Amino acid sequence: KARAAQLMQAFSEQERARFEALPEDVRHAFQEGMINPHNIELALCYPDTYSSSELDPRDSGELQFHCREMTRSLEKIAAIATRNKAALIAVLVPHAALASPESMANSARLGFTTDPKMLTRTQSETLVRENCRNAGIPFFGTLRDFRKAAALELLFYPMDQHFDPRGTEVFAKQITHAISACLRAIQDASQ
After folding, report:
1. Is there a contact between 96 and 156 (Cβ–Cβ < 8 Å)?
2. Which residues have a Cβ under 8 Å from the Cβ of 189 and sit 6 or more positions away?
């Protein structure tokens, strides 16, 4: 509640207008501390967060900049892993706005800009995969299979962008293969 009150006091005029445009139940839940304040803050300050992740980087200088920064960060992580003889794998956690029509609608209710095309595009995963490849880090994609599971049942909390218990279970099962392969490689290298 306290963080919600702080955020409301700091809203710009534009953010306040966006907040007032949210459904009444969402505004009430936020004010009562029943919604992660970061979700509302992100939606009001950067409503295009998830829709812009599906842009072609050739169309956006800002996105190209962020891709270069991601590669640099991944290279640093890879260097630390190498120095410490640690195995490394990257996995992109699917976001609610990209998973299913119902989850995307819930993201829109929180104030994020959405577009039905987001549910078929894979640009965000492709960008992360390319950045991982550039940094020499193996990447395991989950978006396609996670979308299949999300089409059958809701895997995110309705007023949150986090997995619900079932979503956590589905995601854990999906990444078990990648983690197992990583552990086998470590075991093989130590023999």
Report:
1. yes
2. none
Annotate 117-177 with DSSP letters as a single string: GGGT--HHHHHHHHHHHHHT--EE--HHHHHHHHTTS--B-TTSSSB-HHHHHHHHHHHHH
What Cα–Cα distance (Å) separates residue 76 from each residue in 32, 79, 81, 179, 186? 41, 5, 9, 21, 21
**For residue 1, what pLDDT is reported?**
84
Q: Using alpha carbons, select from 18, 30, 24, 14 the residue that is nearest to residue 159.
A: 30
Q: What is the pTM of this model?
A: 0.82
CA–CA gap between residue 47 and residue 50 (Å, rounded): 8
Q: Which DSSP letter does residue 95 get?
A: P
* CA–CA gap between residue 136 and residue 138 (Å, rounded): 7
Residue position matching structure tokens 């880090």:
137
Parallel/antiparallel/unpaired status of strands 90-91 and 139-140: parallel
CA 16 to chain centre: 25
From the list 83, 86, 105, the residue with the least C-alpha distance to 96 is 105
Give the pair of three-digit tokens for residue 48. Answer: 């295009």
Cα radius of gyration (the chain): 19
Backbone angles phi, psi at 15, to 5 degrees: -65, -40
pLDDT in tens, 120-168: 888 888 888 999 999 999 898 899 999 999 999 999 999 888 999 999 9
